[in-house]
Amino acid sequence: EDCGRYIRYDDALYEDGSDYPYCQSCYARLKRKAIKPYSYKPEPIFYGSGPFYMGVELELDGGGEDSQNAQNLLDVANQSAEHLYIKHDGSLNDGLELVTHPMTLNYHLQEMPWRAVLDKSKALGYRSHQAGSCGLHLHINRTAFGDTEEEQESCIARILYFFEKNWNELLRFSRRT
Question: pTM of the prediction?
Answer without folding.
Answer: 0.79
